From TrEMBL:
It comes from the Eukaryota. Gene3D superfamilies: 2.40.128.20. The keyword Signal applies. Residues 1-21 form the signal peptide. The keyword Signal applies. This is Lipocalin/cytosolic fatty-acid binding domain-containing protein.
Length: 218
């Protein structure tokens, strides 16, 4: 049943065609923070992430969302294994972020490798921007991220951190940052990830809450 539903969604996704003004790489590039525009480092983006909040019709019915990012230093492409559970069924989709221009940091065209060997995933390009990131206290990696993608009438927002939990106040700070950067969304449309029944995931170093979030959570 789950496989049939996912296969149907993949076929539908392959038929989407970008056709809306305001959804181009130039448009999403305008949403980036100065930290991204001036110094985004994709190497600091690598590794394991926990999604905490999202707007994405493809995630309806999903839980336990995580991402594992890998950088191809030769091309600048970032590949992520986006893993979820539909009920008790684990499911992973491969996402690829191709840089638009090395001089325009944090702006990509995103495409997916559709499961079940269904062709066409690479034909659908979603303009995507890293809206904001915050580094760890030791500067070795990013600890939080906000991503925005768009396609036709669909907008996608992803808020993720390195840790499996995130205080509500800290989430509100990240949502407010997205709003201030011009990401078009309503908070009523934001879904949060419940990890109460998720299996323990293998991850990297523990989450180091950035100073801006830690100050709010106190």
């Amino acid at each position: 049943m789950a496989a049939s539903a996912l296969r149907a969604f993949a076929v539908a996704a392959a038929a989407w065609v970008p056709a809306v003004a305001g959804c181009s790489t130039k448009d999403v590039a305008a949403m980036r923070s100065d930290a991204v525009k001036d110094g985004f480092d994709p190497a600091a983006f690598e590794g394991f992430w926990y999604e905490h909040a999202y707007i994405d019709p493809a995630q309806v019915g999903a839980s336990c969302q995580t991402l594992n990012a890998t950088l191809n230093p030769a091309t600048g492409e970032v590949a992520t294994d986006f893993s979820v559970r539909y009920g008790a069924v684990p499911f992973t989709i491969k996402e690829f972020y191709d840089p638009v221009d090395p001089a325009t940091r944090g702006v990509y065209n995103k495409h997916v490798q559709i499961p079940f060997n269904i062709p066409g995933g690479s034909l659908i390009q979603l303009p995507t921007a890293v809206v904001d990131v915050q580094r760890s206290s030791d500067g070795s990696r990013y600890e939080t991220m906000i991503l925005y993608s768009c396609l036709a009438l669909v907008s996608e927002v992803v808020i993720a951190t390195r840790g499996p939990t995130l205080e509500r106040e800290s989430l509100q700070v990240l949502l407010q940052t997205a709003k201030e950067r011009g990401v078009p969304f309503k908070e009523s449309g934001v879904s949060t990830v419940d990890r109460s029944s998720c299996p323990k995931a293998a991850a990297g170093p523990p989450f180091q809450e950035p100073q801006r979030l830690a100050a709010v959570a106190v």
